[in-house]
Amino acid sequence: MTVSPPRSPADLPPEPENRPLQPPRTDTIAPLALVETAFLASAASLIWLVNFYFPLGPALRVFFSLPIALVYLRWGSRSAWMAAIVSGLLLSVLMGPPRSIQYVMPYGLLGVLLGCLWRRGVGWGRSIALGTLLSATGLFFRIALVSTLLGDDLWTYVTVQVTGLLEWGATRLSLLWRPELGAVQGATVLMILVNAAVYVFAVHLVSWAVFERLGLRLPPPPRWVQTLLEID
Questions:
Q1: CA distances from 196 to 4, 103, 107, 228 (A)
Q2: Pick from 139, 132, 122, 137: which is nearest to 198 by CA?
Q3: What is the CA radius of gyration of the chain?
Q4: At residue 39, does pLDDT exceed 70?
Q5: What is the mean pLDDT of residues 199-228?
Q6: How far apart are CA 162 and CA 155, in angstroms?
Q7: pLDDT tens across 123-160, in order?
Q8: How far is the CA of 66 from the CAs of 8, 13, 27, 45, in angstroms?
């Protein structure tokens, strides 16, 4: 039996470097996105529920779409659509399908739309215009839905109210003018669009003020808005 000669230190294999032990990496992004989506969907449903039973005027309405938009800014379109659907399902359990549909259209869809536009850096002009169209469409949808459920034409009621308003204005201006049906319906649509534009503009202001404090960069407001708010 032969004995091998001892090896020199140069012939020995290099010792492994002393590296600190690291815990195995776990992917926490997906669970975090799921938790935030569920939480914000529940928050959106809660805001709608509280405003329905304890109406505070426009104070809470501007927050209807913000949780869904926040989900889009944080986690993208898939999570935002999931949040809108979950909010609708939760409200369907708590308040019934008609009320849940009235939240999803337009406020849930508006949150998805605004989140998409803000994430892409679209300016306030285009986002307010698109949001106004969606919000006005949602109001027409709600009128049609409630009319179907009640078996009555609410659009006729709205046009009667607008007719009275126009006649009152003509009387105050001493005008001998009786509004026709086409003029009344045109004025009704115009008033709905103006109301939707004011609402979406208010949503932009609140979102810009809130999301900036959360570290989310939104497109800056127009110069005249910054001047009114005295922003440098």
A1: 92, 15, 12, 21
A2: 132
A3: 29
A4: yes
A5: 90
A6: 11
A7: 999 999 999 999 999 999 999 999 999 888 888 888 88
A8: 72, 62, 28, 11
**Pick from 107, 108, 110: which is nearest to 128 by CA?**
110
| Domains in the chain: ranges and CATH | 33-229 (1.10.1760)
- Give the Å distances, CA to CA, from 48 to 94, 120, 149: 11, 27, 21
Q: What is the pTM of this model?
A: 0.82
pLDDT average, residue stretch 22-49: 79
State the residue for tokens 């127009």.
222
Q: C-alpha angle with apex 58: 52 to 62, nearest 5 degrees?
A: 90
d(CA 83, CA 77): 10
DSSP calls for 30-55: HHHHHHHHHHHHHHHHHHHHHHHHS-
Alpha helices of the chain — where are they, by DSSP H?
29-53, 58-61, 66-75, 77-95, 97-103, 109-119, 124-150, 154-172, 181-213, 223-229
